[in-house]
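Progress report, Aim 2. The chain analyzed during this reporting quarter is listed below.
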Amino acid sequence: KAALTGHLVLSTLHTNDAPSSISRLLNMGIEPFLVSASVILIMAQRLVRKICPHCKEVENIPASALVSIGFTEEEAKVVKCFKSKGCNACNGSGYKGRIALYEVMPVGTEIRELVLEGASADEIKNKAVKLSMKTLRMSGLTKIKEGITSVEEVLRITFGD
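Predicted structure tokens for the chain:
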């Protein structure tokens, strides 16, 4: 109600990604017209483990496998992936620290229309991606390219993406 009166309201929901938040609000009994009128942006974040810099080593992953998880063919040919073997610095885990993957979905006119039409989270996600939303998986691929986390870790966190 506060959001409808012009107040900025920040809230949290437990969902797997930003588009699923719309479905969650609707499942909570909030009318679609209220959701479309009051929500202006949804952000999702998931934490992934960072590869230990002391024991990380190059991991050879076939280009076809990298393409299957979302890299372009050009990226798959040149991206350097890493894994870790574990050392004293990371207590044998191979990981040290965590970093966030982000997904930010502005709720503009086209997304609002989908909400009013009763579109599924997948339909909303597809439209948001067409409107240039970077998914959690895409954020994870960036962290892989930067050598911060592993393919295995990104797949663990973004399993449905």
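The chain has a mean pLDDT of 93. The two ends are 32 Å apart (CA to CA). These observations will guide the mutagenesis work planned for the next reporting period.
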